[in-house]
Known about the structure:
The chain has helices at about 5-30, 40-65, 75-100, 130-145, 145-175, 180-185; strands at about 35, 110.
Amino acid sequence: xxxxxxxxxxxxxxxxxxxxxxxxxxxxxxxxxxxxxxxxxxxxxxxxxxxxxxxxxxxxxxxxxxxxxxxxxxxxxxxxxxxxxxxxxxxxxxxxxxxxxxxxxxxxxxxxxxxxxxxxxxxxxxxxxxxxxxxxxxxxxxxxxxxxxxxxxxxxxxxxxxxxxxxxxxxxxxxxxxxxxxxxxxxxxxxxxxx
Length: 195
């Protein structure tokens, strides 16, 4: 089996794992009332872009082979790195859902009885779910042997993150005031001690 084929399998298994992790938390979150939602139209567009980059573009390439001119051969070192990064991404993704519990939301929302979560991975970074998406996109870049499919995730997550993060932190500051400002001073956004 070629490294390229192994990379594709690892990517596909990771996608399935992602959906398995998310499903029960999404079900539980639907049962918790939303007090405030911010920028719903913008949120739909950003989430669609993320879905296109992390799922639709790679799937189109896998099904159709287009654009074949951007295909290349992977080596096993890239696949191993991609698999390890994907595992870290999935662990962080699951852990951030678990730490948030019913407060999790796919879009920018304040939930009923919402509070600032400072435990678990949230004691190290404010936005571990975004960190998991960055890691997922990086893993995709290592695992898929087509330049467009490989890089689509990084482009999509960059658009999502840099368009959304300031709105999210403003929403949380408005909801929690000085408590959230103090949390911002104590933690970095997505890379512990750096950013």
